[in-house]
Design a protein that fits this description.
By secondary structure, the chain is of the alpha/beta class. It is 31% helix and 27% strand. It has helices at residues 22-31, 48-59, 92-95, 105-112, 131-139, 171-182, 197-208, 240-253, 269-277, 314-322, 341-347, 377-389, 400-405, 409-415, and strands at 3-7, 12-17, 39-44, 63-67, 77-82, 89-90, 114-118, 143-147, 150-154, 163-165, 187-191, 212-214, 220-224, 232-235, 255-260, 279-284, 287-292, 301-302, 327-331, 351-355, 358-362, 371-373, 393-397, 419-423. The strands form 6 sheets. It has a 4-stranded mixed β-sheet. A 4-stranded mixed β-sheet has the order 2-15-17-16. Strand 16 and strand 17 (287-292) form a beta hairpin. The termini are close together. The structure holds uridine-diphosphate-N-acetylglucosamine (UD1). Uridine-diphosphate-N-acetylglucosamine binds at residues 23, 26, 99-100, 126, 128-133, 168, 170-173, 198, 311-312, 334-335.
């Protein structure tokens, strides 16, 4: 298995290209299953999760063609998705690799009236049930039974519109219900919907495909079902979590970087939180300029649905806080058990204590390089960030987690001056 080696102590300077968002690409790929016509997605990142989703969609009978794109470049790949659905089962072997596989459920039900999807089960960052997806689809007329680890769903007479109030603004449940509602009979109102920019991207693409949706960007989506959707071309929005990650890289290593394609309005609370910590982020044309001012200061943050501080940037920000002056309290409100990076950061010399869903981080003068590994995507990248500030060499093992969600992270960081390389395992 590949490893990443980082030797710390070099400030960053230069440009980093921000790729298309993984978490926008995955639901948009399943949106391609809503029609026989071709959906063309541009600016799709080259990631293991995208390959997994391609495999899943292909085995449903829908063709996925991939074109172009240089690794880490600004010419992301183009995916062309379309065709008849010949198989309605999403098997355990693929679903277990990636929770977002559950996003085929809504499109399958809406398009062909049946689906059999393996339950995703628990994962490293918590139990993550799918009850809200299932309840919403049931309200739209789906008959759902759980059997042998699978969700068996049927809508023999098709789905119908409904008023659905989510008790929690789940990103995945919003996406599944939204996609299903585009082809349902009548009007669906989805209240307390998630407002993440990836959902805005999905809404924009569905509208381009002929869906009738109002309320984009708000927590109340109104969808008038249509008989069919048509072909469209859509460019995937820039990845706000990759953007936040490289902003944290500049924060911890020092220096200044320009994040090409990054969008300030999609960063939510990341901007004010980093500003309080001593890092300035400003929009500069098509790029974001990120600059560490003087020292870093401890700041409290708690994860919340968008536009609050994202759970997907909590580990990266914790690495920054590990070397800030003073203490900070980071509270994780979205997932239980999302502090797996803490013991690894501690091995690098960080002073962090976890109390329930909060971590108290007392900044230290310096971290020291160590052998570390992580059990999820964002935790892995937080260890690379810590390595940028550590004295000596850090080896990050189990890089396959990283490859699920970051394209060429080592090349992008090396290009702005970091001493980092990938070693084939
Ligand atoms: C998405 C993102 C993930 C991010 C998360 C929160 C994708 C592919 N993944 O995941 O990177 O960390 O949003 O921003 O976009 N929940 C339930 N029942 C449900 C659904 C969710 O209890 O039916 C709970 C989950 O266990 C979790 C919380 O709600 O505690 C958030 O989940 P959700 O917003 O659905 O996240 P995902 O869509 O899985």
């Amino acid at each position: 298995m590949d490893k990443i080696l980082v030797r710390g102590g070099r400030p960053l300077s230069g440009d980093i290209v921000i790729g298309g968002a993984k978490n926008a690409s995955l639901p948009l790929m399943t949106a391609g299953m809503l029609t026989d016509a071709r959906l063309t997605l541009t600016n799709v990142p080259r990631l293991a999760d995208i390959a997994t989703m391609s495999a899943l969609i292909s085995q449903h009978g829908v063709a996925v063609e991939v074109r172009g794109g240089t690794v880490g470049g600004n010419d992301g790949r183009t995916l062309s998705i379309g065709g008849a659905i010949s198989n309605t089962e999403a098997p355990y072997d693929i679903v277990r690799k990636m929770r977002a596989s559950i996003l085929v459920l809504g499109p399958l039900l809406a398009r062909v009236g049946e689906a059999r999807v393996s339950l995703p089960g628990g994962c490293a960052i918590g139990t993550r049930p799918i009850d809200l997806h299932l309840k919403g689809l049931e309200q739209m007329g789906a008959e759902i039974a759980l059997d042998g680890g699978y969700v068996n769903a049927k809508a023999p007479r098709g789905l119908h519109g409904a008023t659905i109030v989510l008790p929690f603004a789940s990103v995945g449940a919003t996406e599944n219900i939204l996609m299903a509602a585009t082809l349902a009979d009548g009007q669906t109102v989805l209240a307390n919907a998630a407002r993440e920019p990836e959902i805005g991207d999905l809404v924009a693409c569905l509208i381009a495909m002929g869906a009738r949706i109002e309320g984009a960007g708000t927590d109340r989506l109104t969808i008038e079902g249509v008989k069919r959707l048509h072909a469209a071309t859509h460019e995937i929005v820039a990845d706000r979590i990759e953007t936040a990650t490289f902003a944290c890289a500049a924060a911890i290593a020092g220096g200044s970087v320009r994040l090409l394609g990054g969008r300030l309005e999609h960063l939510g609370a990341v901007v004010s939180t980093l500003a309080q910590a001593g890092v300035e982020i400003t929009q500069d044309g098509d790029a974001l300029a990120v600059r560490r001012l003087n020292g870093l200061h401890g700041v409290d943050a708690m994860t919340e649905p968008y536009p609050g501080f994202p759970t997907d940037a909590q580990a990266q920000f914790m690495a920054v806080m590990a070397v800030a002056e003073g203490a900070s309290m980071l509270t994780e409100n979205i997932f239980e058990n999302r502090f797996m990076h803490v013991p690894e950061l501690t091995r690098m010399g960080a002073n962090i204590n976890v109390h329930g869903s909060s971590a108290i981080v007392r900044g230290v003068l310096r971290l020291s390089g160590a052998q570390v590994m992580a059990t999820d995507l964002r935790a892995s990248v937080s260890l690379i960030l810590a390595g940028l500030a550590a004295q000596g060499e850090t080896t990050v093992n189990r890089v396959y987690h990283l490859d699920r969600g970051y394209e060429a992270v080592e090349r992008k960081l090396a290009a702005v001056g970091a001493d980092i390389e990938r070693v084939a395992g």
